[in-house]
């Protein structure tokens, strides 16, 4: 399992782009993790699935609401990852009004989740292999803080916890 101090796996995530521009075409676009995190501080959180109750009611809204505070703490981008396809993540982004606040990134084949060791086996519940719920603060591709939830919990991966960690870093 990925640990504090480790480098993120250089997998490819997908992002649904609503408006063409900056070299991005409409629809799904690849996001290669290593270059996308190079020289940046990223607040990354992962959820078991788009449109699921806790993820939609608490997890994503917390990060959207605190996006400006993350920016003030020195965070360049906020990423939400889920083992869903880019079309679902795009629809969820519209539903959650994440534009300009949170990048909604699809880990469609769970490559990132598997490479980090942060998978959640929900076979038998109709969901298959998913990502565990967690948050991490990443600088230049390296993990600075990692907050992994116990199964079925939402206690340590919330926006307030990661924001406090980001604020603590910027104070140094």
Description:
39% of the residues are buried. The strands form two sheets. The protein has a seven-stranded mixed sheet. A two-stranded antiparallel ribbon has the order 6-7. The model has no long low-confidence stretch (mean pLDDT 91). It is an alpha+beta fold. It starts with 11 loop residues before the first strand and ends with a helix. It has helices at residues 33-37, 53-65, 67-72, 86-96, 111-116, 159-170; strands at residues 12-17, 27-32, 41-47, 77-82, 103-106, 119-122, 128-131, 134-139, 142-148. A hairpin with a 2-residue loop joins strand 8 (134-139) and strand 9. It has one domain: 3-Layer(aba) Sandwich (Glutaredoxin). The longest helix is centred in the middle third of the chain and has 13 residues, at 53-65. 31% of the residues lie in helices and 29% in strands. It is built from six helices and nine strands.
Number of domains: 1
Biggest beta-sheet profile: 7 strands, mixed
- Find the structural class using helix and strand composition: alpha+beta
The poorly predicted ranges are none
Shape: globular
Which quaternary structure do these chains form? single chain
CA distance, first residue to last residue: 28 Å
Strand order of the largest sheet: 2-1-5-4-3-8-9
Q: How many helical elements?
A: 6
CATH topology annotation: Glutaredoxin
In CATH, the homologous superfamily goes by the name Glutaredoxin
Computed Rg? 15 Å
CATH class: Alpha Beta
Order of helices and strands: EEHEHHEHEHEEEEH
Would you report the number of β strands?
Answer: 9
* DSSP helix fraction: 25-40%
Gross CATH architecture: 3-Layer(aba) Sandwich
| Beta-strand residue percentage | 25-35%
